[in-house]
Amino acid sequence: MDQMSGMMSMMSESAQGPMAGMDMTMMQRCIEACSACEQACTMCAGSMSMDGMSGSAMCMSCAEMCNTMMRMMLRPMPTNGGDMAAMMAMLQATSAMCRACADDCGGMGDSASATMCAQVCRNCADACDAMMASMKPMMAS
Question: According to the lineage, what is the superkingdom (predicted)?
Answer without folding.
Answer: Bacteria
